[in-house]
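User: Teach me something about this protein's shape.
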Amino acid sequence: MPELSHLLRVPYLYLGRDINTGLDCYGLLMEVFRLYGIVIPDYLPRGRVVGDAGRMAELLGWTETCPEFSDPPLAVLMSRTCGGHHAGVYIGEGRIIHTGAETGCVIERRAKLKRDIIGFYAWSEQ
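Assistant: First, the predicted structure itself:
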């Protein structure tokens, strides 16, 4: 597993894609996958993402999987209590790295986020 501790100092920035200025949840996902040697494409939401998160993941090139049977990194799609969707990365050993306006980048236990998790997704190269 690559070293990720330097990401814990990166602030949250809406639509952020640069670790020097800030990352949003998908920017962090892109960076963590890059550190694992996997380049995934960007997307920029046009307004608020609505609808089925699993369908959205499929359209972006992700395949639903189970963390018990797949190696990290895995994208984790989550719901937000305020509405909308959120992404993080399952990095193994029951841990998920994600970012938010209130916390910046954090690593939390999967069990703590369990009620918000919609699914785990592996990157399927296009």
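Now, about its shape. The CA atoms of residues 78 and 117 lie 4 Å apart. The chain has one domain: 5-41+52-123. If you'd like, I can walk through any region in more detail.
User: That's plenty for now, thanks!
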